[in-house]
Each structure stands twice: as structure tokens, then as C-alpha cells.
Write a structure and sequence with these properties.
17% strand; 9 strands; 253 residues; Rossmann fold
Length: 253
């Protein structure tokens, strides 16, 4: 998008609250960790502050942002500075490589996927399919036409998966999701009116304050007059929803 902040600027904005708000959701973690199979040595690429890193395995983290590395909590896996598309490891160094909600920040996602497949026999990536249309997440569908621009020019999820022959599986998101990523509050719309909730996701930082102010004002009106509830009443009692989350797995075993 024109005028979009740099990755460093985005990281600097979201890093202060990332470790406390972008926590590991147990249901999503169970899917990711099961997909890792019997892997003992794991590389986490675009690791952020370390959520979803299994504590019972040997994890090495890669994170290009100094702000994110500094925000990693005590006891987190060792973390090095590197880019996904140029990993400083020999072929087959790790049993598995994982990436959780990070490849949209990579300079070249396909090159990053190929690097993951080069350094590990198994690859597990958790990400959103942002090319769905109409999008199943109401905030994108009804309030954020600008969201499409964030994915413009990037390879689709299917193209990314095809680059390493990975399978794609939908991941339903629980209504009480503990990880405060962008679509986590699909059944708790009032949460998007809280600046602290919005501050921990890169989407708002990338879209800018004018879009953020417009969307929150419109959502507040629609919640107050019942418009949101008329459109999305079924979501209020749903225990989980498929809103575009996908798990990609590639194994040479």
C-alpha cells in the first residue's frame, strides 16, 4: 500500500505488547505440535516473542527484528538475527522448521518456504488464506476493503504451499482464542474497539490510523444499533469458526 510503514516500524509498534497479548492458544498449538510429528530439533522462523515454540523440544528461533528479539521473555529459545529467505544453516540441519503467522512479513515468501524445506525434512506453517472471497471474516468482508491491498502482489497460499509440495488443512479458531491475532475476536466484536487489542497486531499498523479510526467508528455504530448482530448472529453461539486459518505441512519422511 502507498505510504505503508516499513517492517521495522511495524515491529517497533507491536513489540511492546506482543509477548503478553500474542500468547499460545492451546487448541492451535495442539494442531501445530502434532504436525511437527516426532521432530526433536526445530527451527522457528519469524519467531517473534516465542509463542507456539514447544518447550519439550530443542528449538532454535530466527527473528529479523531487534525489537521482537528484545521482547522475547526469559527462558525463550535461543534466537538469532536472520531473514527467512537466507537462513544461515546447512541443508537438513533440523528435523522440522515452523513458521507461525510470519510469512506475510517475509521479503519473498516462496524463497522463504524453499529455505525452510532446505534446512529441515518437515515444514509446518500456520497462516491465513487472505485471497478468499468473499472473505469469511466479517471485519475484512464488511469493514476493511483496504485489507486486499496488503496481499496484493504476493503469492497465494496455494502457490506458497505448491512451492514445497505442502498439504493445506483448515484450522478452526476457537471463540475464546487466547492468541490476540487479528481475527481472534471473530465472536467478540467489541474487542476491536479496545486500542490495546488493536496495538498487538500488524494489520492496523500497516493500514494506518485513518483507516483504523474509520473502521472502529463504523463498528461502534453497528454494534450500538444492532446492525452487526443482525449480520452475524450465528457467530455469538458458535464454539469455533473457519475464518481462513490454514495449516501447511510438508514432509520428506
Amino acid at each position: 500500500m502507498p505510504g505503508e510503514p516499513t517492517s521495522d516500524e511495524v515491529y517497533a509498534r507491536i513489540a511492546p505488547t506482543y509477548a503478553t497479548r500474542r500468547t499460545t492458544d492451546p487448541q492451535i498449538a495442539a494442531r501445530i505440535w502434532a504436525a511437527l510429528g516426532d521432530a526433536r530439533t526445530i527451527l522457528n522462523v519469524g519467531a517473534g516473542t516465542g509463542s507456539y515454540e514447544p518447550t519439550d523440544r530443542d528449538v532454535t528461533a530466527v527473528e529479523p527484528s531487534a525489537a521482537m528479539r528484545e521482547a522475547r521473555p526469559p527462558g525463550a529459545a535461543p534466537c538469532i538475527e536472520a531473514s527467512a529467505d537466507d537462513l544461515p544453516f546447512a541443508d537438513g540441519t533440523f528435523d522440522a522448521a515452523m513458521a507461525v503467522l510470519s510469512d506475510h512479513h517475509w521479503p519473498d515468501p516462496v524463497a522463504g518456504y524453499r529455505e525452510l524445506a532446505r534446512v529441515a525434512r518437515r515444514v509446518v506453517v500456520f497462516q491465513w488464506d487472505n485471497h478468499l472471497g468473499p472473505h469469511p471474516f466479517w471485519l475484512i468482508r464488511d469493514y476493511l476493503p483496504e485489507f486486499r491491498a496488503l496481499a496484493a502482489g504476493k503469492p497465494s497460499l496455494q502457490e506458497r504451499a505448491a512451492s514445497i509440495d505442502a498439504t493445506i488443512t483448515p484450522v478452526p479458531i476457537p471463540s475464546d482464542c487466547a492468541d490476540a491475532f487479528f481475527p481472534a475476536f471473530w465472536g467478540r466484536p467489541e474487542a476491536y474497539l479496545d486500542p490495546a487489542v488493536r496495538a498487538s497486531t500488524s494489520v492496523w499498523a500497516r493500514l494506518g490510523p485513518d483507516v483504523e479510526a474509520r473502521v472502529t467508528a463504523q463498528l461502534a455504530r453497528d454494534l450500538a444499533d444492532g446492525t452487526w448482530h443482525r449480520r452475524n448472529a450465528a457467530l455469538l453461539t458458535a464454539p469455533e469458526a473457519d475464518i481462513g486459518a490454514r495449516l501447511m505441512v510438508r514432509s520428506t519422511a
